[in-house]
Amino acid sequence: MPQVMVVARNFMDMVAALPAAKLDMLYDSAFICEAVLRSFPPLAKKYVIQMLYVSAPMPAAAMQEWVLDEYASKHKVAIDRLLQLRVFVEVRDRRKEVSYKMNNKFQANMQKYLVSGGCLPREPLPFSVTGRLPTLVELENYALDQWECFLLQLINSSQVEKGTTFSSSMMKTFQRGLLSSRDGEAAKLSENGFQFLLMETNAQLWYIMREYISSAEERGVDPTDLISFLLELSFHTQGAAYSLSTLTEVQRVAIMDLMELGLVKLQQGRKDSWFIPTKLATNLSSSLSDSAASKEGIVVVETNFRLYAYSASKLHCEILRLFSRVEYQLPNLIVGAITKESLYGAFDNGITAEQIISFLQQNAHPRVIDKIPIVPENVTDQIRLWENDRNRVEMVLSHVYEDFPSKDMFEQCCDHARDNGYLLWEDAKKMRLIVNAEFHQEMREFLRRQR
């Protein structure tokens, strides 16, 4: 069965993975400190506020007494998160008792921010310079159109190969996990690519940002600088215009890449150029659960496996085609059916039954969203059964051992393989056994020792 892709839930997962030295460099910015503080669970935020003006290490045993016994698990989660992001640093005294001290840079910046507030390195341009700017509704439609264009180009691999709109840095990001190609062949969606298309928009955004940051060093960019700018971008006002002249060269390149995905909109004036953050950009420092927009679903699934999607979007039609047979498309309605053949095609591409069911539930039409279950049980059960049908037989590379000189040696080999977990099959009458190919060398060594 294909492995489900692991997606970073927010930027803080990527920040926590940075080396300690680079993580401390990020805390030079008060806005990074605030973004980190926002990401913490409520109890962790409380600990930060309590420790903000405490310079001495606080014993771990004393902090444990701050919560009742029934909240011990939440206390552990909060402390672990604070340690992961180096907001708290573990200190041990001569008696090896554990204490926690707040990161000096984080503490100093948060104290300044609390007293005097903070200001972004750039201010919005006045109306006299920009004139009329897009409304929030227009900006949201622009972001949606850009994102759908990106997904459609992923589905149509020939368009991706031509690279008509994507920069080389974004192409490298896609090729890291979403596309695969062989010599002389056009790029095609990989298994992760097919799974990616069934994710929610925010989950897709986090995946792209994670890969974009991970590939930064290949482009000669420090990931710390990129994370710092992206988190800073989340504090900009949605719909306001900011001058491109205030950006560094690295930031300018990043803005051009983000524009392709609909995170910002670029505009040109008579004397100045500016970028306008969309909702996707201002949600960057939030978690998936915080930033998930309450969008209206479109899909209705009937007990006869018929599927109706109330949408005029070509993207929705292409995504449904991944696991169903689209029969016809009206101006505002897509009609299809979930069949065994269409699901087998999805399974071949690496999409799992649970991902298909999750997609149908998350995109359910408002008329069926309150039903229990949202997707008819006979449909979900059959989808799982058809997946299980394909997984009943598993191909495993193996080696056959036969012609043993004696019954005793055969039994010793069987016992050895069984005890070590690589015996797949045995036939005592004909003295044959089959062993997993990964352990062929170990089995040969054992046979040599028995001679």
From TrEMBL:
Subcellular location: Nucleus
GO BP, sorted A to Z: nucleotide-excision repair
Residues making up the signal peptide according to the UniProt record: none
GO CC list: transcription factor TFIIH core complex; transcription factor TFIIH holo complex
GO molecular-function terms, A-Z: ATPase activator activity; double-stranded DNA binding
Top-level division of the source organism's lineage: Eukaryota
Main location: nucleus
Residue ranges of every copy of the Transcription factor Tfb2 C-terminal domain listed in the record: 381-448
Keywords: DNA damage, DNA repair, Nucleus, Transcription, Transcription regulation
Functional description taken from the UniProt entry: Component of the general transcription and DNA repair factor IIH (TFIIH) core complex which is involved in general and transcription-coupled nucleotide excision repair (NER) of damaged DNA.
Family of the protein in this entry: Belongs to the TFB2 family.
Protein name as annotated: RNA polymerase II transcription factor B subunit 2
Source organism of the structure: Aegilops tauschii subsp. strangulata (Goatgrass)
